[in-house]
Specification:
This protein is of the alpha+beta class and 442 residues long. It has two domains: 2-197 and 381-440, 3-Layer(bba) Sandwich (FAD/NAD(P)-binding domain), CATH 3.50.50; 202-373, no CATH class. 26% of the residues lie in helices and 28% in strands. The chain is built from eleven helices and 19 strands. It has helices at residues 17-29, 46-50, 66-75, 95-108, 180-187, 260-266, 294-300, 311-318, 321-332, 353-364, 420-440; strands at 2-13, 35-39, 59-60, 80-82, 87-90, 112-115, 117-126, 139-149, 152-165, 192-198, 202-204, 221-231, 241-252, 256-258, 283-287, 366-368, 370-373, 381-386, 404-406. The strands form four sheets. Strands 1, 2, 6, 7, 8, 9 and 19 form a seven-stranded mixed beta sheet that branches. A seven-stranded antiparallel beta sheet has the order 16-15-12-13-14-11-17. Bound molecules: flavin-adenine dinucleotide. Flavin-adenine dinucleotide (FAD) binds next to helix 1, strand 2, helix 2, strand 7 and helix 11.
Length: 442
């Protein structure tokens, strides 16, 4: 393998959200520094293009450092729009525009890019051992990366005075993030909280392979509602303690549950497999009629104009048909009366108090047993990462290796949906760049 060498003042590993924010900020605040971005994929910012379903929810008015983030976007000329719920998007609602602007801005500020190049290892030694070290830097780093060209696989050694590790986590591996940064951080002495996928769907034991629960195809059905998560179930009949609740659109898929409220729920589903915990400790409930008491609603209609309305017909005015069918199936188990009628065909007036209560209980607390949290391909974020005990929160600098910075999702920080994860990436990248710019000022 042919080895080449080169130098840079600052190497940023990873041309994602965090790395690009850091690169631009360095270009603006410390234009004399030679900044190199090493990006594994053929172009930087691939994940940014996929964010927010192609719209890029760049921030949230409730995010830490919101004003700082917006100041940065104003400086680079991005026009934004903020919705009443606090979510911030580029005005064009185009994630591709954000990625293009970031890359072009960095390049116009003189930032160099080495794309299609994968960082393999980082070594360092105190800069006191180097002649003419860059002022402000405590260490000199040697980074080994590889790339492929017509002559085969080539290896490059880059010497740098500052390194920003912005390699992201493991969520969305098609965007270049397969967890390389964890190995490199561990080799530099850092500890890594076990990464697990989050902001993703939940597979449920109720679903059978080809259909949905009870053989009813729920895939594609959406319903407004409230999802709740229970944990620490001591036995199969206990529901445990409620640890999470969120209202929103619940999406029923071919494997189980999805939607933003379900995604947010998965951040509360970390469990200790080695300590004997499992997903069996969790239970999910969905209230599909959160605005009232369904039992009361049915009772009001048992006498008078609606008394002869079949129960199934009433339920289908409350829920989408597949969900109504599922509730009917779970309430009745498919049983029929002596006239051969299923509960759905019987008039409301014939329902016993117990049957009315049973309908209401199922609609208000439809219960699902999680069997699997969807994996890295579906996850939007990584829970876990480089331990925050080993990173300076204000500057993103490693507390173990001077002049090494750990930014974005690579560190053990994750947030709910709504622009908070990108906010973390921008903000930690900016903090690292500002610190380097301040330290290298002569
Ligand atoms: C589909 C999807 C939609 C999302 N939507 C939103 C949203 O709308 N709002 C929001 O706030 N968050 C969203 N997120 C989360 C958000 O995108 C991430 O939290 C954020 O991008 C993390 O930024 P980062 O810079 O830490 O890492 P990334 O943006 O993941 O960038 C890391 C970069 O490092 C590169 N890299 C990795 N290893 C190496 C290596 N060894 N050598 C060189 N380069 C390497 C990768 O190729 C990648 O380009 C979404 C995530 C996904 C997957």
């Amino acid at each position: 393998m042919v080895k080449e060498t080169r130098t840079a003042d600052v190497v940023i590993v990873g041309g994602g959200a965090s790395g690009l924010a850091a690169a631009i900020e360095l270009g603006m605040k410390a234009p004399a520094l030679d900044v190199l971005v090493i990006e594994k994929l053929a172009e930087p910012g691939r994940k940014i293009r996929a964010t927010g379903s192609g719209r890029c929810n760049i921030s949230n008015t409730g995010a830490a450092g919101f004003n700082r983030i917006m100041e940065f976007f104003r400086e680079i000329g991005l026009v934004t729009r903020t919705y009443d719920n606090g979510l911030v998007y580029p005005y064009s609602e185009s994630a591709a525009d954000v990625a293009t602007l970031l890359v072009e801005r960095a390049a116009s500020l003189g930032v160099r890019f080495a794309c299609g190049e994968e960082l393999m290892s980082v070594k360092y030694m105190p800069s006191s051992l180097v002649s003419q070290p860059l002022p402000g830097s405590g260490n000199v780093f040697q980074l080994e990366s590889v790339f492929k060209d017509r002559d085969g696989i080539r290896s490059v050694i880059t010497q740098a005075s500052f390194v920003i590790m912005a390699t992201g986590g493991k969520a969305g591996p098609t965007y270049g993030t397969i967890g390389d940064g964890y190995r490199i951080a561990r080799n530099l002495g850092h500890s890594v909280v076990t990464p697990v996928p989050a902001l993703t769907g939940i597979e449920c034991g109720e679903w059978d392979e080809d259909h949905g629960p009870c053989g009813i195809t729920l895939g594609g059905t959406r319903s407004a509602g409230v999802v709740s998560l229970y944990r620490d179930r001591s036995h199969a009949f206990s529901e445990g303690t409620k640890i999470f609740e969120e209202a929103g659109e619940i999406q029923f898929t071919k494997y189980g549950l999805s939607g933003i409220c379900v995604f947010n729920m998965t951040r509360h589903m970390r469990y200790d497999r080695r300590g004997g915990e499992s997903l069996d400790d969790f239970l999910v409930k969905a209230d599909l009629f959160p605005d009232g008491d369904l039992a009361e609603y049915i009772r009001d209609r048992q006498n008078g104009a609606f008394s002869e309305t079949p129960a199934g017909e009433l339920l289908r005015t409350v829920l989408k048909e597949p969900l109504a069918d599922y509730i009917i199936r779970t309430v009745s188990g498919g049983a029929v009366d002596e006239e051969g009628r299923g509960i759905e065909d019987r008039p409301l007036s014939s329902l016993s108090d117990e049957e009315v209560r049973s309908f209401a209980d199922h609609v208000h607390a439809l219960t699902f047993h999680p069997s699997q949290i969807r994996g890295w391909n579906d996850a939007q974020v990584t829970m876990g990462g480089v331990s925050l005990d080993e990173i300076n929160e204000a500057t993103s600098e490693s507390l173990l290796v001077e002049s090494l910075y750990i930014t974005g999702e690579l560190a053990d920080r994750d947030y709910q949906c709504g622009g908070f994860n990108l906010s973390n990436a921008w903000l930690t990248g900016l903090a690292a760049a500002d610190d380097i710019a301040g330290r290298t000022k002569e």
